[in-house]
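Task 17 of the worksheet. Students: predict the tertiary structure of the chain below and write it out as structure tokens. Keep your answer in the requested format; marks are given for formatting as well as content.
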Amino acid sequence: MKLKHSLITALALTIVSITIWEGYWRTQTDYYIAYLEDDRNLWSQERAKVETATAEDIILLGASRTGYNFNTHVWEEVQGVKPIHLTANGKPPGPFLEDIVKNTSFNGTIVFGVTPVAVFVFNGDRRWRVAEKWIDHYYNRTHAQKLGFALSKPLQRNLVMLSASEANSYNNLDLKSLIKRIYIDDNRIKGNNFKLVNIGYNDEDRNLIMFPRLTDNPIYQKEITDEWEKVIPIVLTEYSEDVEKTISKSIHNLSHLIKIFKNRGGKIIFVRHKAEAGWNKYSKRMMPRDKVWDRFIETVNCPSYHFEDYEFMSKHYLPDWSHMNAEDAKTYTRDMVNQLIKDGHLIKH
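Model answer:
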């Protein structure tokens, strides 16, 4: 009998604690919202659509800028086709292009968003391998994993306390992230104090949506840009012989894949999204346009759009220097799709 009472008491305390915990985080709407995490499971669900895609379909590839800047719902409104959204936040798009070219017969249109460091520098590094793990997961998913993902959906959609991401954002709610927030000023502890703060969430079509708090709040914006200022100058170094070798290797590998894709009837369009000066000045330092972008586009001979060449691509201010807020993304998507239709690269359905 005592054991029964203890069990009931423990269960009641657990329910009360979880309710209080969830209730608290629901009040922190600047940072948190209940949503289906954009992980390898959700990506795999979208990737499966490629298997039955036709020449009329469109695939979006790229890193976070493409994920935040393009909205597939608006795209569908304008063109009549909803793109298959295979962008991956924080991951280079190269492995995903390779998967499509080598492992499918897709011969429609790929719109490839270019963040220079992700496309031309992160070739074979840790981020590249993380992207490959997503692809491996798609092909090797077990029935148990598929069932687990299906069962997790209702919980993720309704519980803010499950907010997390594979990007290990500083403000996730999993135990590991919460522990990371504990600051210990101890000379024995060394390491990188870069705090990657999650700036948005995603809908179930994998569109990334910036939290409204960032749109017009300089305090929140500075919270992000201060962190970028710590790491960007370190990652984006001077143009050098070693950088030239890395870029040449990337262009060679990409041009090979693109040639295969074009030979089977596919079309690929490259889009160089805007970055604000705080970020872009270092991109230009490491990867000057004439030595990288112009050379790449000339090599692959594909349609291309650079934000410096089109007013509609550069008119929006990026709150965190790198990504568009949700409303600007809708306008940007509409303008881009209309431009692609006008230029004959897309057909309105």
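Marker's comment: The chain has one domain: 31-342. Residues 184-192 have pLDDT under 50 and may be disordered.
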